[in-house]
Structures are given as C-alpha cells and as structure tokens.
Design goal:
821 residues, mainly alpha, Clc chloride channel, CBS-domain, 3 domains, four-stranded mixed sheet, three-stranded mixed sheet
C-alpha cells in the first residue's frame, strides 16, 4: 500500500484554489461519485518480465532542437503551474478525498509557520490563523443559541394561538399573558386578558357550540400552519424537510450535498420548524436544531479562508456545530459534545472535541441569556426529584428498557416500510396532500384529549413532574392526608378520581402517539424524533410509576416493600419512571447510550439517577439490537442510498481485493490515460464516453506500470483553460504528465503539461489483500478509491461504492441500492 505525500498540490497552490471560478463546460456528465474507471482496448498480460523504461525519459538529445516551435512550447507548457480556479474542488454528490485535503492543510500550515519567522505581519497572520477556529466556534455558538431562542419563543406563542389570543398584546403567549394576573393559583391558567376563541367570537366558553367552535379553530390553525410549512419547503428549500441528522452524518463522512447546509435551507428550516411544531404534529424540534446549527457552521465557514477552501477542515467545524445544536435543543452542552462524538461524527480529533465543547458552552450560554421559557431553564421540561431510588426499583426500570427496545425496533421497521412506500408509489408525488391529511387526523384525534392537545414538550414536562402541594393537575389528584406531610415531600397516597381519569387519557394518548409518529417522521416538513420518542416512553413510564406507587401504598407489608417502604413514606416517584421510560424509548430508536444518559441527567439535574438511566438505556439498546442492528438514522441513510461507510460494524468475510475490484472477468478493460503519448482529442473522447470520476495514469498501454491518478473534473477544467489561454493547443496536441516533455518532431503542435493535477501517490493494494483490510483503509482514511496492482502493474480499481455494494451483497441486501437517490 502506498503511503501518501503531498504530491497533489503545493501549499501555495492549495491556498488559492477557489471553487467559485469553476465554469461548467462542454464536458457535462452525471458523474456519480464512485463510478470511476475502466480501461479501453487493453489486454493485461502479467507474464511480461521485461523492464519498463524510466518514467521521465531522457531529454538530452531532444534539447538540441533550437527552433521557435520548441522554444515556444517551453514557455507555454507550464501555464498550469499557476493553480486554476476549480481544480481540486468537487462536484455535487461526490465524496471528498480526506487524504488529499489533510495533506493540503498540512502544506498550508507549514507554509504559514515558515513565513511567520520572516516578518511581523506574517507572525500576526500566523496567530490569527491559529485563533480563527476558536472565533468561528464563538460565532457558531452565538448564532445557534440565538436561533434556538427565537424558535422556542415563536413555537410557544403559535402553539397557544390555536386555543386563543391575548388581549393585552397578541404577541404574548398564554403564560406570559397571565404572568401578572391576580387570579387564585389553582385557576392560574385562566385570566381576564387571555380569551379562548369561543369567548372572542360568541362571548362564552360554556356549552356544546363553544366546544365545537374551539375544536374547529384548533383544526383550522393546525392545517394553516402545516400548509404554510410544507409549501415553503416545497417551493424554496426541499432540503429543509425531515430531521437532517442522516444527511449530516453522510456529509460528515465526506459526501458533498450542495445546498443542504446553505442559507436558503437555514432560513426556510427555521421558519418551517416553528410552523411544524406549532401545528401539533407528532414531531420535535431537537433533530432539526442540529441541522440549523450545522447550516450556521457551514455559512460562517465562508468567512475564514482555511475552512472555506478545505472540505476536511469544514467537516471538523460541522461536528462542533452539531454539538452546539444538541446543546441548545436540550440545554445539555456536555451531552451535545458526546452526541456529536457518538452519533454523527465520522472524524473527531481531540482538537475538535475541545472546540465542540466551547461551541456548546457558548450556545447554551446564549440561550440562557435569552431565557425563552421565562424560568431560567434551557428546556421546558426541567425537573428536580428529591426521593432516592431503591435497588429493587431496577426491575421496573429494566422493564421500561425492554419496552423502549421493542418500541424502537417496531418504530424503525414501520417507519422505514412507510417511507419506502412513499418513495416507490404515487404517494411521494403529493407531499402537500400527505402533510394536510396527517395534520387533520392528528388535530381531530388530539383535541378531545387534554394530554394530546397540549404541545408534546408540555406533555413531557407534566409527566416528568413530581407532584407537590401546589400541583393542581389531574395527575396529582390524590386523596390527601396532610397530617403526615413532611416539608415538600408528600407521602405515597391513594389515587383519587383525577388520577384514574388521567391514566386512561394517557393510555389513549399513548396509542395515538405510537401510530401517528410512524406516518409523521419523514414527511416534507422539518420533523425531529427525539420529543415524540420521549413522549411515548414518558407516558409508559408514568403509567408504570403510578401503578408501582399504588402497589406500594396498598401492599406496603409485602416482602418486596417492607424493608424500605413503610406506611406514610414517600417511596416511589412516578416522574422518575417517566424520565427513565423517555430515555429507554429514545435509546431504542436512536441506539444512543452514553450521550443519551448524559443528556437526560443534564435535563433533570439528578446525578443520583444515572444508574437507572444507564440500566434502561443499555437494556433498550440490547433488545433493539437483537431485533434489528440499525438505528433510525442509519436505516434512513440506507433507504436513501447515501454512500456512508459505517465505522461501527465489523467486516468479517474472507474475500480478497481481486473479488471486488473492477473490471471483473467479462467486463471491458480498465480505462487509463498514458503519461506522454495521448493527444487532447484522445483524452476528450475518454471523458465524453465515460462517466467515471477519475482515471489512472500509466507509463504505456503495454507496460501498465502505474504513474498516478488524475480526476476527471481537474482534466476538464485544465483542458478548457489551456484551449482558451495557451496558444497552439489543438486536438492533436500531446498531453504529458512527466517532468519533461517527450521527444517530438519540430513541426508538431504545442504540448500540454498537466503534471500539477496528477496525484503521484494514489493508494494502492495488491490483488491478494484481504477485503477486511481494504474496508478498514477506506473507513479510517476516508478514501474515494484505491488502485489494485499485481507485481507492480495496474490491475483494477476499488471505489467506495464498490466497497459498499460488496458489504450489502455479503449481508444479502440489494447491492444496487447503494447510490444516491
């Protein structure tokens, strides 16, 4: 295997490459990233034992030509020493070359360091270059925190708008409208300044007609919000739909999806996320907030040359931006960093860890300064529990973990089946109609039940809540015995009628959430999965928690309770069960473990509940993995055919590089370019007749001795520029990749030297290399392609797509699904 050097471009050239100057010329192709190379008209004969001529032929006798033609050529042939705009950049839906990008960055850094000793200005430039990464993180944190605050405040107001309006100011939500109202605490949700729609239209909130009117207004507002959301997405930014995390994982692995992290996507995603959450659909804003933060990161990268011109450096920034996104979504900065590391990032060096930490800190601080919920907390469902848990409670916690794993596996299978149906049938042609139908069904079924009518975040907040003396919700309607009250902690009490009503309402809410979320996730509106998954788990957890509490109250003399739960004691906290259930279901769907537990304890501020959370998260992962190996994001990556090479899975099959490389036995031979014997016309014919992303360069057709690898895009740009700017370049001009021009008669046209675009150190393996090593090389170095040799002679090529197809084939899946759909 060849080691790499910086043979692609010198540092100065790497700096000045700018993709903006790229013109699309006559060689248009739908180059699929990995479909690379075949060679025409060559029979590979490995029996050749003769030696090959040196790569750069001796020019001694040739320099005796002194004519004008030769002199002219020597002046013109090096025009490419100045780097061209567009050379070294990538087309849409291509994979970046990590090795080349890292090499270019090292060259750039080396050059800046060496120049910094020459002058004060160069030293200042060196310091500013080193500091630019931290400044960029500061800007990402500020922008992500500000946008999250804006989204939270807007969504809160628009959710309340479905039920009524504030007379003091229509821009106030229900809570802020009644902030200073002098009403009794138990009636704090009703105040003279807040009017529900029936009071505003017919003057009363009592009676059947008022109820129907409120119902109608609720459904109309929900439909209006969702129609606006889907229309904006469809009209202005199709990439703004969905959660965005599968695509961000793919982008961070080195794939390029132009526009996915652009300014239009950011603007439309921010607006439509507010509309989608406010419409009452069963979706959350947490996943899309990661996409929003990554859009901020990508746009801000353009302010700094070192990130603008290097795709690998930009991906380090996007990893940190993903951490900032989770930080503001859950108010969990450390959880955000771990989420980026565990779930989305492909390449995560130590430097990125520190910068992610800083970006997450700034984002959380910014959101805290905005204080969107008015309670000095970063999330709506922050809670604090006071009662310690007992060892025996691990049994119900593990049961919640098992439920979370089963629900996760069921949800992934059902949702993927529905999304596949959407892709392969006429359903996919009517995104607006689909969104409106799902919104109408959700709103009609949600309104009669107060637990589905409220926003999902409020529902989770209610379920996590530990009933205190001042709580007047149905879930806290116990038969009170205040003689045994000690401080804030209320003893376990008998459930009152309100609790029983709440139980069956929650059971109905659970059924609705479980099924409606399957159809909602993946529609053409921004839709996160964290909140609906947590809601399902929180409902199940609360139901189990109340059941345990009543069991302990009525049967405190049972052996399992007698040791630790005496009569009149506060033993069971139903809110804690809701929290553990939420973690279990979220873990079952996403397969997160470490980051999930940290996010949950940052949410609740309860360090002593880490063990229950760990038990539930681990159990749910084991159970879900036993049914299906993929989390929801990996399943969507596979459904969409993104070229993502999963780093977590082992390749255990005993195949060799020769089994996977192309060309295969009956294929046409490999398409190659020779180093100094092909004309401009020959190369243009190859470019026009093939769709590969690059071509190996060999000494000659006969020897097949490998010289290097050249990218199709670089060839097109270089030839176009030479035809325009260099005199004497015609179709019969020889293209050469050597240091010196080959000997030609004086009458021949000017030659074109393209050595500067040749990769002189392409990765190579022999045909007998085991595929598990090849797969590891592709994963760890982020390669686009790898050339296969036999006794030093070129035999074939393996691309990233070939590797993915081979892995799919070995897993008995359809290998043709690995392409960008």
């Amino acid at each position: 295997m060849a080691s790499y050097s910086h043979g692609w471009w010198l540092g100065s050239e790497a700096q000045s490459m700018d993709k903006k100057g790229y013109r699309r010329g006559s060689f248009q192709s739908s180059t699929s990233d990995e479909d690379m190379v075949e060679i025409e008209g060559v029979t590979l004969d490995f029996s050749m034992a003769d030696d090959v001529p040196p790569l750069d032929r001796e020019m001694g006798e040739f320099y005796s030509y002194n004519g004008g033609e030769m002199n002219g050529t020597s002046k013109m042939m090096d025009f490419l020493e100045e780097p061209l705009p567009g050379v070294g950049t990538y087309e849409d839906f291509n994979t970046i070359d990590w090795v080349r990008e890292k090499s270019r960055d090292r060259d750039r850094h080396r050059e800046i360091t060496s120049k910094s000793k020459e002058s004060t200005w160069a030293l200042i430039h060196s310091v500013s270059d080193a500091f630019s990464g931290w400044l960029l993180m500061l800007l990402i944190g500020l922008s992500a925190g500000s946008l999250a605050g804006l989204i939270d405040i807007s969504a809160h107001w628009m959710t309340d708008l479905k039920e009524g309006v504030c007379l003091k100011g229509f821009w106030l939500n229900h809570e802020h409208c009644c902030w200073k109202a002098e009403t009794p605490f138990e009636n704090r949700d009703t105040c003279s300044d807040w009017r529900i729609w029936s009071q505003l239209i017919i003057g009363t909130s009592e009676g059947a007609f008022a109820y129907i009117l409120n119902y109608f207004m609720y459904v109309i507002w929900a439909l209006l919000f969702s129609l606006l959301a889907v229309s904006l997405v469809k009209g202005f930014a199709p990439y703004a739909c969905g959660s965005g995390i599968p695509e961000i994982k793919t982008i961070l692995s080195g794939f390029i999806i132009r526009g996915y992290l652009g300014k239009w996507t950011l603007i439309i995603k921010t607006i439509t996320l507010v509309l989608a959450v406010s419409s009452g659909l069963s979706l959350g804003k947490e996943g899309p907030l990661v996409h929003v933060a990554c859009c901020c990161g990508n746009i801000l990268c353009h302010l700094f040359i070192k990130y603008r011109k290097n795709e690998a450096k930009r991906r380090e920034v996007l990893s940190a931006a993903a951490a900032a996104g989770v930080s503001v979504a859950f108010g969990a900065p450390i959880g955000g960093v771990l989420f980026s590391l565990e779930e989305v990032s492909y390449y995560f060096p130590l430097k990125t860890l520190w910068r992610s930490f800083f970006a997450a800190l700034v984002a959380a601080f910014t959101l805290r300064s905005i204080n969107p919920f008015g309670n000095s907390r970063l999330v709506l469902f922050y809670v604090e529990f006071h009662t310690p848990w007992h060892l025996l409670e691990l049994v119900p916690f593990i049961l919640l973990g098992i439920f979370g794993g089963l629900w996760g596996a069921f949800f992934i299978r059902s949702n993927i089946a529905w999304c596949r149906r959407r892709k392969t049938t006429k359903l996919g042609r009517y995104p607006v109609l689909e969104v409106l139908v799902v919104t109408a069904v959700t709103a009609i079924l949600a309104f009669p039940n107060e637990y589905t009518r409220m926003s999902t975040s409020e529902l989770i907040s209610e379920l996590f809540n530990d009933c205190g003396i001042l709580d007047y919700s149905k879930l806290c309607e116990y038969v009170s015995d205040f003689n045994s009250t000690k401080g804030d902690d209320l003893p376990d009490r008998a459930a009152g009628p309100g609790v029983y009503t709440a139980m069956w309402q929650l059971a109905l809410a659970l059924i609705l959430k479980v099924f409606i979320t399957i159809f909602t996730f993946g529609m053409k509106v921004p839709s996160g999965l964290f909140i609906p998954s947590m809601a399902v788990g929180a409902i199940v957890g609360r139901l189990l928690g109340v059941g345990m509490e009543q069991l302990a109250y009525y049967h405190h003399d049972w052996t399992i309770f007698s040791g630790w739960c005496s009569q009149g004691a506060d033993c069971i906290t139903p809110g804690l069960y809701a929290m553990v259930g939420a973690a279990a279901c979220l873990g079952g769907v996403t397969r997160m473990t470490v980051s999930l537990v940290v996010i949950m304890f940052e949410l609740t501020g309860g360090l002593e509940y880490i063990v229950p959370l760990m038990a539930a998260a681990m159990t749910s992962k084991w159970v879900a993995d036993a049914i299906g190996r993929e989390g929801i994001y990996d399943a969507h990556i596979r459904l969409n055919g993104y070229p993502f090479l999963e780093a977590k899975e082992e390749f255990s099959h005993k195949t060799l590089a020769m089994d996977v490389m192309r060309p295969r036995r009956n294929d046409p031979p490999l398409t190659v370019i020779t180093q100094d014997s092909m004309t401009v016309e020959d190369v243009e014919v190859i470019i026009n007749e093939t769709t590969y992303s690059g071509y190996p360069v060999v000494v000659s057709r006969e020897s097949q001795r490998l010289v290097g690898f050249v990218l199709r895009r670089d060839l097109i740009i270089s030839i176009e520029n030479a035809r325009k700017k260099q005199d004497g370049i015609v179709s019969t001009s020889i293209i050469y990749f050597t240091d010196h021009s080959p000997p030609l008669p004086p009458s021949s046209p000017s030659m074109l030297k393209l050595r500067s675009i040749l990769d002189l150190s392409p990765f190579t393996v022999t045909d007998q290399t085991p595929m598990e090593i090849v797969v590891d090389i592709f994963r760890k170095l982020g390669l686009r392609q790898c050339l296969v040799t036999h006794n030093g002679k070129l035999l074939g090529i393996i691309t990233k797509k070939d590797v993915l197809k081979h892995i799919a084939q070995m897993a008995n899946q359809d290998p043709d699904s690995i392409l960008f759909n």
